[in-house]
């Protein structure tokens, strides 16, 4: 788990060393308690933490996710997509997230939301295929829940059809500008 935390991210390697120590992930920034049980009897609320992240994909409804909590002021963030939990993606829909939600889903960036949003904001899409999911959570299914205008327009690779004609160089310029501006730490741009 420590290795995955440190290296398994589209954002690159974690900025400090992470190691496992007595059931906790330890880094220069502090300690995080970890649980490895898929049972509803996990007592993560006993650790005194306010925020919890579930990576199992098992607790994919609010009812299942909050079953572990002790108090109403605690929150759960799911790593998997969920049809029944509000979904948010940094750089796309994160500003609509508010503290009244006890459970949210932090949708995978692998779902093409960022690129889809840049193009959709400038040239409405008629189709935005998404890469096949590398994980069982199915991030490709989440795009249309995060960007409502893309509902029922998702298939399987990264090719898009626009509602109106647009020049290729204009699209490249907008994507490059977004990668250097509003979603700089999230969306990369290259002509390789």
Automatic annotation (TrEMBL):
GO terms for molecular function: glyceraldehyde-3-phosphate dehydrogenase (NAD+) (phosphorylating) activity; NAD binding; transferase activity. The keyword Hydrolase does not apply. It is found in: Cytoplasm, Cytoskeleton; Cytoplasm, Cytosol; Nucleus. Pathway: Carbohydrate degradation; glycolysis; pyruvate from D-glyceraldehyde 3-phosphate: step 1/5. GO terms for biological process: apoptotic process; glycolytic process; regulation of translation. SMART domains: Gp_dh_N. It catalyses: S-nitroso-L-cysteinyl-[GAPDH] + L-cysteinyl-[protein] = L-cysteinyl-[GAPDH] + S-nitroso-L-cysteinyl-[protein]; D-glyceraldehyde 3-phosphate + phosphate + NAD(+) = (2R)-3-phospho-glyceroyl phosphate + NADH + H(+). It holds the Pfam family Gp_dh_C. Its main location: cytoplasm. GO terms for cellular component: cytoskeleton; cytosol; nucleus. The keyword Transferase applies. It is an enzyme of class 1 (oxidoreductase). Residues 1-109 form the Glyceraldehyde 3-phosphate dehydrogenase NAD(P) binding domain. Its EC number is 1.2.1.12. Keywords: Apoptosis, Cytoplasm, Cytoskeleton, Glycolysis, NAD, Nucleus, Oxidoreductase, S-nitrosylation, Transferase, Translation regulation. Belongs to the glyceraldehyde-3-phosphate dehydrogenase family. Homotetramer. Interacts with TPPP; the interaction is direct. Interacts (when S-nitrosylated) with SIAH1; leading to nuclear translocation. Interacts with RILPL1/GOSPEL, leading to prevent the interaction between GAPDH and SIAH1 and prevent nuclear translocation. Interacts with CHP1; the interaction increases the binding of CHP1 with microtubules. Associates with microtubules. Interacts with EIF1AD, USP25, PRKCI and WARS1. Interacts with phosphorylated RPL13A; inhibited by oxidatively-modified low-densitity lipoprotein (LDL(ox)). Component of the GAIT complex. This is glyceraldehyde-3-phosphate dehydrogenase (phosphorylating). It comes from Cricetulus griseus.
């Amino acid at each position: 788990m420590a290795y995955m935390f440190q290296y398994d991210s589209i954002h690159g390697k974690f900025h400090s060393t992470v190691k496992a120590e007595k059931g906790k992930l330890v880094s220069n920034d502090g300690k995080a308690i970890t649980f490895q049980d898929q049972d509803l009897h996990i007592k993560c609320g006993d650790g005194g933490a306010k925020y919890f992240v579930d990576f199992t994909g098992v607790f994919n409804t609010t009812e299942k996710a909050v079953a572990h909590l002790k108090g109403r002021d605690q929150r759960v963030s799911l790593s998997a997509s969920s049809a029944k939990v509000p979904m948010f993606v940094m750089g796309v829909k994160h500003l609509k997230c508010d503290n009244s939600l006890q459970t949210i889903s932090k949708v995978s960036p692998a779902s093409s939301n960022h690129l889809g949003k840049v193009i959709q904001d400038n040239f409405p899409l008629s189709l935005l295929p998404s890469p096949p999911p590398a994980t069982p959570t199915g991030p490709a299914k989440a795009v249309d829940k995060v960007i409502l205008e893309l509902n029922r327009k998702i298939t399987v690779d990264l090719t898009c059809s626009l509602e109106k004609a647009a020049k290729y160089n204009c699209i490249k310029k907008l994507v490059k500008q977004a990668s250097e501006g509003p979603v700089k730490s999230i969306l990369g741009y290259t002509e390789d």
